Amino acid sequence: MMQWYRFVLHYLWIAPHALLVVVSALMFIARLYKNFPIFFLYTLYETIEFLLLFVIAGIAPTHKVLYRYVFAATLAGSTALRFGIIQEIFNHLFHDYSRLETLGAIWMRWLTALLAVAAILSAFYSSGSVPDSLLSGVALLSRSVAIIQAGLLLFLFLFSHTFGLSWRSYTFGIAFGFGIFASTELAVSALHLTNLTERSKDLLDLLPTGSYHVSVLVWLGYLLAAEKPVVAATDAVPEMDQWSGELERTP
User: Fold this and answer.
1) What is the mean pLDDT of residues 12-35?
2) Share in percent of the chain as helix, strand, coil (round to 5)
3) What is the CATH number of the domain that holds 53?
4) Closest by CA position to 50, among listed 74, 84, 79
5) pLDDT per residue over 119-168, tens digit each?
6) How far is the C-alpha of 99 from the C-alpha of 4, rounded, in Å?
7) Dihedral pair phi/psi, residue 233, rounded to 5°
């Protein structure tokens, strides 16, 4: 493997998590962990996950099975937190519309159950070793969440005005960062299905970590420059009031 590739690979593995420490610290100082507790927990979790995998890769480089087990377990936890962040963002959007918030919570619970079942079935029917089966199931769950997060970004772009959501709010910044990462993850998954050379696959594998680096920079940038970091919907929006009112009258 070329020297520059190894350098970039290690940089894109280490740098985003180092910046996540800064994001966590700034959120704690600004007390944003009270408004975005799941996202704050995610930043801490990702940092601890990185340290654990980094230590395993350093002290037990030949124990690939152990690394895969730990990677699969921590990826499952990370995916669950990402799904929780989707719920957290929707809660901020629907905060002033109680019936819509209730329906959104019900929808998310059902979707969570369906995705979990799909991941379990994928792991059960996958061929190969147990670690490979676990990875395939968790990877399917991660891709499913990526689809939802990419859709969430599109949703926010299209309806940010309807919800009264400022593009400079931290709610939008969190979703924007995840949207970049999720969209890249989906694109890379699709490209891996095509006929690529080994060199092309190696270069392609840099994209997810590279996009994650960009996502962390987006979160950090929004923390430092967001005009309205906490507020999701500042004023009541007539269309939303009408939808919520119709739902309130529904038996």
Assistant:
1) 93
2) 80, 0, 20
3) 1.20.1070
4) 74
5) 555 545 544 444 555 566 666 666 777 777 777 677 767 766 666 667 77
6) 54
7) -115, 110
Number of domains comprising the chain: 1
| Dihedral sign from CA coordinates of 139, 142, 148, 154 | negative
| Helix extents (H) in 30-126 | 37-59, 64-93, 98-125
Give the Cα separation of 206 and 186 in Å (integer): 14
For 13-33, give the DSSP string.
HHHHHHHHHHHHHHHHHTTGG
- pLDDT-based confidence at residue 1 (cuts at 50, 70, 90): low
Tell me the C-alpha distance between 132 and 184, whole Å.
23
CB 122 within 8 A of CB 137: yes
Domain assignment of residue 181, given as a range: 3-249
Q: Where are the beta strands (DSSP E) in 162-245?
A: none
pLDDT, average across residues 20-41: 94
**Which of 83-92, 129-138, 171-180, 208-217 is least confident?**
129-138
User: What Å distances lie between residue 76 and 6, 27, 29, 36, 72, CA to CA?
Assistant: 27, 24, 29, 21, 6
In this predicted structure, what is the pLDDT of residue 110? 66
Residues 182-209: tens digit of each pLDDT: 888 888 877 877 777 778 877 888 898 9
| Inter-axis angle of helices 130-159 and 170-191, nearest 10 | 130
